[in-house]
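Async update (no meeting this week)

Hi team, since we skipped the sync, here's where things stand on the single-chain job. The sequence we agreed to prioritize is pasted below, unchanged from the tracker. I ran it this morning and attached the output directly underneath so nobody has to dig for it. Comments welcome in thread, and please keep replies under the output.
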Amino acid sequence: MFPELPMAGRWRALGTRILVEQSERQVLEDGVYFEQSSGYQRYTIEIYLHFLILAGRIGLAVAPEVANRVRRMLDFLLAIRRPDGSIPHVGDADGGWLLPLDERSPDDFRGLFSNAAAVFGRPDYAWAAAGPMSETLWLLGAAGLDAVEALRPEPPSTTPSRLFADGGYAVMRSDWGPHGHQLILDAGPLGCGTSDGHGHADLLSIQVAAFGAPYLVDAGTYCYTADREWRDFFRSTAAHSTVVVDGVGQAIPAGSFRWDGRPRARVRRWRSTTAFDLVDAEHDAYQRLPDPVLHRRRVIFVKPRYWVVVDDLQGAAEHQVELCFQFGPMPVTVDSALWARAEGPGGHGLLVRPFASVPLKPEVVEGEIAPIRGWVSSNYGRREPAPILIYSAVTRLPLRIATLLFPVEDASAGFPDVCALGGDGPGPAGLVLDRGLEWIGFEGPEASGGVTLR
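Output:
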């Protein structure tokens, strides 16, 4: 660009070197962006797509690995893309675009996929774009639109369920269709290794879509520096679908873009078959408590129908335990028998039922201010009340809670036949469904994550 300028060659060389070096540093091997943020992953992909487009126009040679990294980043977004086409919030997001050429909601990445389809000629990117978008016309002209239209859109050829081991995300889905079920478990680090500034204290949190639509969601970001209390809430453990111990977060905020401490999470096991998916993960965030607590979470997807979430809390003293499920804006109720019912779009629903060896107190909180609880932010600067389902207990550890997440076609449908199997441990040894026709055990061989199905 602007070759007539005296410093053009130097700027071009410097910019190319920086972009190539930072792609190596900031993009993990599996394509996850190192800040653990889907919003900033999009922003970074936009930067590199613009770079590749400009380089192609001026004949600038770029190492092939740069394009490979961009494709891997796009493939991660394909994997976490919800069945309805939206992209879930993970970590911080301020709604920023490199070059906003159309008006889109922050979870609408169709323009990004349209540009990627034109640049890389990938049918799965064209599928995710759902047709050529206006951004492609602005960036690549009529030839770009023609390139997208020439592709035959097809869903990804990879298996619908996938583990991203470097980034720490496990994705379980029934299929690539628009009405499928999907669960994402976050077992990645708090953020990048330097500041963790855009990461949330969301270790082992889950997001769930059923019949294509989101039910359990990340609460979002809302603001950065305008209000410290709200900033800290939206990135707190209490705003995510995971377990809170003793009312404290997995990490303590030390400024708007810093955390005190760096808890670690890891995936212990991953298995995916045609019949089920299993992820087994743990984190050490609560090892800092006077009585150290280790949280292990296993998620079993019995394809294509339902999930079982098994939370094991290892400790030796009495603790307050809160099992949280943050829903998007929708009606959620819970009864005295612990059954919760969420009513989603299209008359569909999601049923929730935990099983434990100690009494659990159920509660639905929405739009509370003191303390702040039950809010989501779909876009930067906006917030709205949304129900969070909380099951709590004060009990001596160890403790196991096994929770059934059961999508239903009709939100008013009756509850499924399910009961817990007793055991010698700190909680249920398994669940039995449909009067014994289905059986899921939690205390099998450790090599299989302790899970057995029949």
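Quick observations from my side:
The domain at 162-453 is CATH 2.70.98.70 (Beta-galactosidase; Chain A, domain 5).
The mean pLDDT is 94.
Reply here if anything looks off.
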